[in-house]
Amino acid sequence: MALKEGLTATQEMIVGEQNTAKYHGSGKLDVYATPAMVAFMEGTAVACIDADLEEGMDSVGIQIDTKHIKASKLGAKITCTAKLVKVDGKKLSFEIEASDEDGQIGSAFHVRYIIDPVKFMSRL
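The line above is the sequence of Dihydrolipoamide acyltransferase; the predicted structure tokens follow.
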């Protein structure tokens, strides 16, 4: 496996109406929703490892401990960086930070497992 601790990925996005608390039902305001931030964090962790996974393999998230510490408005640019901090066999641990133009808005500890998607789906 080519996955090494220290791999990082950074992604950016602009907060649109589909990313708001009002849209997700997690509140009534047009601010960046915690569920949208969590999905963006998880997607950034995936981007961190996708190119280095063995061919035909995938990963699934099993844990995410998140803090959303500051609101971001519609149109804000969100930057998310994921760092692979531990590789323990098929278990991968990440530290993730999200920020907008004014600074950090959230952080997370995230765990993913490497899986064979065919075997995984056959067990469902």
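Note on the example: DSSP finds three helices and five strands in the chain. The radius of gyration is 15 Å.
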